[in-house]
Each structure stands twice: as C-alpha cells, then as structure tokens.
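thread: overnight batch results

M.L. [08:02]
morning all. the overnight job finished for the chain we discussed friday. pasting input first so we're all looking at the same thing
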Amino acid sequence: MCMSRRICQCLLKKVKNSTIMNHHLISFFEEDGFYLERTIGMIAVIQTGGKQYKVKEGDHVSVEKLPHDINATVEIKDVFLLEDNGSVIVGTPVIDCATVTAHVVKQKKQPTVLIFKKSRRKNFRRKNGHRQPMTVLRIDSIRASI
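M.L. [08:03]
and the structure it wrote out:
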C-alpha cells in the first residue's frame, strides 16, 4: 500500500469519527484507489469589528469585543460574499437580504502583548502589557432570501 493511500485512509477515519458528519453532507469519491472528500455547505464572508471573517455553520470565531452577554443571539448583516454548492454571490458592497446568526459562547482576552521601551545610557526602561478583549461566536445559521 502506498504512503499517500495510507494518509487518505487516516483522514477518512478522522472525518468519519468527527462531528463534521453531523453538520455537513460529506461525499466521498473513489478515484484510482484514493479517497477524495468534498464538503457541501454555505460559506459566508462577514465583517464585524472592522475585520472580515470567512465562516460556515458550526464554526467558532474569535472577533473583536461585542457588547452582548453569554448565550445571547447576534445577527450580523454585513455579509460580503455567499458561496453555496459552487454558486457565488458577491455583494456591492454587502448583500442586503443575507444574515448570519450566531451565539456568544464566551468573552475572553487575548494573550498579553508586551511593550518594552528603553533608552540606552539614560536609565530609562518602561514595561507595559496589553490584553485585547475578544468575543467567541458560534455560527448557527447563514440565511439568504434571494
């Protein structure tokens, strides 16, 4: 058995045992003894906190802090792109009839970023730290009424 076939079989076992099977339709094709996987599901590009994120249903995304409580429902209307089964819809700049619904999983802080300032020969040293607040979202649904 060749090495690439072994790797493909290991990936196939991991995919079958994971929770991806519950969320997405996964179809496998056997082509020359190799297993190829293809996930079918809606993908969206959203904007929140001045940044853009590529998301799909079931994803956990860390975004800039949102003023919502834990387990609150967040509706994001800034959807720039939708992709579903190979068909792509691009907004100008946003898609008006598309929304992404998410739940707030937790509020957290990023790891500490250290700021160290020093002037040589002047005995000037300042050490400071910063932890950016973040919100973890779980994407529940991507809807578009087109």
